[in-house]
Every structure is written in C-alpha cells, then in structure tokens.
Give the backbone structure.
Amino acid sequence: GWRLLVDWRETIARVRGIGKSNRAAITRTNASGEFSFSGLAPAQYYIQTTPAKSITDTPINLHAGATVSNLEIVVGPTESDGRDRTIEGVVIDQSTGRRVESAQIRVFRPGVVPLYQNAQVEADSVEDGLFELSIPAAGRYVLVATSDDRRAQFYGSKTIQVADRDLTGVRIEVARPFSLSGSVTVEGRVPAGLNTTPLALGLYPLQVETLSVMPTNIPLANGSFSVLGVTPGDFRVEVHPILTVPPSALMPPGLENAYVKSIRLGNRDILNDGLHLESRPDASLQIVIAMNGGTLDGQALDDNGKPVPNARVVLVPVTSRRQRGDLYKSVSTGDSGNFQLSGIATGDYKLFGWGRGAEGAW
C-alpha cells in the first residue's frame, strides 16, 4: 500500500546515504538543555547538534515501541578555554620519502554516520608538504590526504587523538592507488544473448573516509577484469544487477535465477566477510555466479483464509547471514494474494508477511 510519487533519482540517492538530507527529525532544547524526539520509525540513528560540532559516536538503535532516554550530548570543545586545537603535520610520498607538493586534507570522525555526505569536519590545503588545520573538539579523528592533480593521484590516512593541547609533527604517508584483478566463473547454462552482456563490479566503501571506486564492467561468462583506482579500506563487493544492497527489483531477462555463489580473494571469503585492503593484494578476486537460484512462490491469506492483495512478503536470511543485505528478497502480492521470489541463494531463511510496511523497514 501507500504508493508515493517521487523522483527515482532522489530515492536512489537517499538509499545510498547521499540525498539532500538524511534528517529524520529536528527539535530544540529547552532552558535546561533537555530535548525529545517522538514518533520515530524503528531504525538506526545518530544525533547531531547545530552548529555541527558534535555527533554521537555510536549509533542509537531504536526498536519498534521502544523508548531511549537519558542521552547526554556534549556540544563543542570540552576544554575549559573553549578554543579549537591546531594540528600541524607533513604529507610524505611513501615511495620516494619526499614531501608532497600539493594535496587536500580532509578530517573525518571515524565510524560516525557511515557514508553520510556531511561527516567531513573540515578541509584545508597542503603547501610544500606542510599543513595546518583546526579541530573543533576533543576526540578521535582520521586525516585523509589526497592529490589535487588527477595525473598523479595518491591517497593516505592517519588516525589521531585530540585532547587538551595542539598536535605537531603529524605524518601522513601517501601512496598511489592500485589495481585489483579478478575473474568470473559461471555455473550452469548462460541463456543465449547474455554471453556478451557485461555486469558491473562495484566496491562500496564501508567507512566515510575511504575513497569511492568507479564501477568496472565485467564479463558474464569466464572472463577476467581489472578494477582501477583502488585505495586501502574496507569494502562491500557488489555485482550489478545480481548482487546489490538492497537487491535489485528489476532483473534483466535471463538473469532472474542468477545469484553470486562465492567471492574469494585467495583463501579469504569476501562475500560474507567483506573486502579489507591495506595494499595491493597478491591474489585476485574469484567470482562464481550460479544460474540455478531457487524460486519460492505462495499466497498470502488473512485470518479468514481470504487472499490479501498488495501485502509485503519478505524473505530474510537466518541470523548467521543476516548482515548480508543482498540476501533479503521482497515482493508485493498480486490481486489474489499470490507472490513469487526468484534468484534465491542456497541456505536457510524465514519468510515474513505484512499488510503494510515501509520499504526496507525490516
């Protein structure tokens, strides 16, 4: 139910955390500094003050019907003098040991509001390898240095702890991005016409300070590929349109039953554990795509045994694989309460049905 007419580009942007605003609610404190939010949907939240000098370090998990109370937020610097702290340092090219002539420094709160567009605290430029910037409050930060010149790109990061005094001598070592090679293997018969259809491999960064990587076309059947411009960080590997979070509702003909069976980097399980890179790996990505995914069909009925049209049916993986957002499948029932889910990876699941429910609320 509850059909909404929206711009699809904005919808996709909001799902990816880069919409016009991720604000769920706004309120003002009273004379005693107290605040309250009500009517919030079950979800994971952060609280940010205005001006944006304070963000809760850990997410607030709000469950249906629950009340979270006694939150305390410290706004701005905690030091008695209330002044910003100055950070001075140098950017060094890891391969030559020399100072980097020109770069951009960005400051992030690690682990705060992942993939949120405004998680960046402050930016400053580097001249002759030296930089100086201000931090508004004590805490843990990540400094990220990137090149201004696209012809000679580099990337480096440094975690710092800011307390009650200025920091000097901070050293950020940077290195050139590297490439990540791999190959695709298909189990089962590839329908005619799909052999030349390229899929898209995406590395989805899991920290806000990690640089994004341009998607790379990969062959569907038994071919090799190379992903360029990769930097150190933690990533979720996606294979569009078969393996995405959330799963794609529009699947090209011939791929309805396809699913990604495994992704390995050497002896590491990347599909379930994610991709962690500190440098260019010696091994290559090995992707196995199966064409014989499971199909589940059925009918949604009410207490009186009558069909329920336009209900939401959701297939949820068991607890051990619940972090795999790509395994969640959902569909709306038809006029007779009928539904069908396809392209299901092997494993154990629970099947849920709701008369109403916002997309993705589960």
